[in-house]
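Let us work through a complete example step by step.
Step 1: write down the sequence.
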Amino acid sequence: MLTARAAWRRLEPVHGMIYFVPEARRRYADLGLSVRAGYFTSRSAAFGRASAELIISTFYNFNPDVVRQAVDGAWDATTPEQVLDARYAAAGEALRRAGIHELPGLDEVLALTRRAAEAACAHAQGRPLFAAHAALPWPEEPVLQLWHAQTLLREFRGDGHVACLLSEGVGGLEALLLHAATGEVPVDFLKASRAWPEEEWAGTQERLRERGLLDGDSLSPEGVRLRRHIEDRTDRLALPAYAALGDADCERLAELASAFGHAVVEAGLLKLG
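Step 2: predict the structure and record it as tokens.
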């Protein structure tokens, strides 16, 4: 389980950079979309003309009012097909800028990651974002195939994570606050990107203190336990994808993935703002 988590985390920057790179913002703007509309429509375009309510449900931790405002009129300006084309084009441009296409282990990493992603397709039930992306055709270019494979693995894991949060009675804003309390991501970034009103943020934070999950702004021991429990369950739900590789190939993917994640980070593709 730890090896599978390492494989996913080390390669995740290859997918995650799409939410930060200027290539994506430019292409969405060319379609008449704001930055927020570009994010919500591009990640949900695999559904087709996704409604705000579908996005709110599957993305889980965003302020619903902001989603509705961002998506309002977006599908009048463009189509899901155009947004998907823009997203893939931006991903390819950004990853080539990072030199991913020149890394010597590309073929092997792609083969292993695609095997895991395709294995996940046998376990799509209850994973709507994953299933929608899994129905998309595979790109022809190796760099984009790698991005698509890691996108599938990200959404496969993410849908499982939402299921774990629901089973533990942790709502979207509560999940966001517990994440913020770890210190892993700047609180200001989470507040700006998820756009919850300050009074709702503060009120939910106080309720988490009353539940014994927060001690001030930090996780309490019970909060640490709950977070660890949820992350461990999320890892277990993600295992069907990586189990298809077997222990040796999963370890090999974890080993090779570091160079790809580092290349994305060193090229500045994950810079906030």
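Step 3: interpret the result. The beta strands are 214-215, 218-219.
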